[in-house]
Design brief:
RNA Polymerase Alpha Subunit, Chain A, domain 2; 5S rRNA binding; single chain; ribosomal protein; alpha+beta; Ribosomal Protein L25, Chain P; four-stranded mixed β-sheet; 2 domains
């Protein structure tokens, strides 16, 4: 999985007054869990753009004055009105421990059902995976090449390589629904067929 680096500085004061001062300075208060003890730090809000405002999944290297820690985004709080980032929680990665995170679904292939006029519906745009940090995928491929009109693609059909998908077997990833146009065309074809059969009689 691709990684991005966020540079910040450790903070000693974690009270409300200190946190407010950090936000007023255009910084975001953050904390890293999962180590021997939580690490509190702050970084510029713009540093999180490529992590937060993207459909892609990333691991993160937090650089605090040369001391680096590999983490993943665990939780994020936004201001209810301005949508500014208020706080971010990270979880420290251990190369020998599996981790769960959400990654995007990438549709590949061409569905015969879509070629016949069906509508492709992507039920899940992200899926939960569990893997060692080195095996975390950038995305999971959903191959729709065999989807006929009315068919569904279940999570069990997704290819997994050194990672597990954390979803029930009956989870539908994508499906091809019969569109109104296709339904109308089928009805018209059926009527024409009936009309032709009557003429033969």
């Amino acid at each position: 999985m691709k990684s991005i680096t966020i540079k910040g500085s450790e903070r000693e004061s974690v009270g409300k007054v200190a946190t407010k001062a950090i936000r007023n300075a255009g910084m975001v208060p953050c904390v890293i869990y999962g180590g021997s003890q939580p690490v509190h730090f702050a970084a510029e809000e713009k540093a999180f753009k490529s992590l937060v405002y993207t459909p892609n999944a990333h691991t993160v290297v937090v650089d605090l004055g040369g001391k680096t820690t590999n983490v993943i985004l665990q939780d994020i709080q936004f201001h209810p009105v301005s949508d500014k980032i208020l706080h971010i929680d990270f979880f420290q990665l251990n190369e020998n421990k599996e981790i769960m995170m959400e990654v995007p679904v990438k549709v590949v292939g061409t569905s015969p059902g879509v070629l016949l006029g069906g509508d492709l519906r992507l039920n899940l745009r992200r899926v939960k995976v569990k893997a060692l940090p080195k095996n975390l995928p950038d995305y999971v491929e959903a191959n729709i090449s065999e989807l006929q009109m009315g068919n569904k693609l279940y999570v069990t059909k997704l290819a997994t390589n050194n990672f597990k998908l954390i979803h029930p077997d009956n989870t539908v990833i994508a499906q091809v629904k019969i569109s109104r146009a296709a339904m109308k065309a089928a009805q018209e074809a059926a009527k024409a067929e009936k009309g032709g059969a009557k003429k033969k009689k």
